[in-house]
Design brief:
Radius of gyration: 20 Å
Structural class: alpha+beta
CATH architecture of the largest domain: 2-Layer Sandwich
CATH class of the largest domain: Alpha Beta
Order of helices and strands: HHHEEHHEEEHHHEEEH
CATH topology of the largest domain: Beta-Lactamase
CATH superfamily of the largest domain: GAF domain
Number of helices: 9
Number of domains: 2
Largest sheet: 6 strands, antiparallel
Strand content: 15-25%
Strand order of the largest sheet: 5-4-3-8-7-6
Amino acid sequence: MTTNALYVGSVGKAFQVLDCFKSASGDLSLMEIMARSGLDKSAAQRYAYTLCAEGYLEQNPQTRRYRLGKGMLNLTFHFLRTHALVEALNPIMLDLSKATGEKISLSLRDGNELVHVMRHQTQTEHYHASLVGRRVPLYCTAGGRAVLSRLSDAELAAQLDGMALAAHTPKTLTSARAVKAEVKKAREQGYALLVDEFIVGEVSLGAAVTNAQGDAYGALHVAGSSTAWSGEAYAEKFAPFLLAAIAQFQGRNPQE
């Protein structure tokens, strides 16, 4: 919690309650909200009631347990509706989806992660992997490495020093040296290629979406099945489409 005088503690506590649901596998009881948020029973009950009244939580009348409310989707809708980058890239993503027949995703950078904000699916995949709002690490995803490739060597080293390089699959690269080598390839090629490093069975390409100064604030992804394609064959087939889509977007020079 920040100590800045502008910080409103009561608003922060409301978000503590909402944050309880980030890692929840289902509905939460009041006691579980207390344990996860660190609030006492009275505070947890009052914040949960208020958030229910505003539509950001819902309470099951039979079990008395809480879950995120449909009001959360209102914010998602208006975020996407008013974001110039998402609006500008959506038709390009649709064309890319039609041209490749593969899964197309747009993500935005948020610290050491990417947040998926638009998905165009053409194939069945894991349910959670297809959802808007999913967060993925920079170091072991194609889009993430493409974003990292826009940093200088010194900036990249500093960025990796602040990351916990955990293995998501048996093939995840977890040494900074190995990740740097792959980021260097992405810098030279204009895109990153990953096979089975974040999701077993997935081969993916990622290219950075940049502003006029060359700073990466997101990435465009193309992904398919690693059981159907080798990494080299996938890149040979689909990287030209991805790079053409990025060039088309950058040529429009939209403002974020």
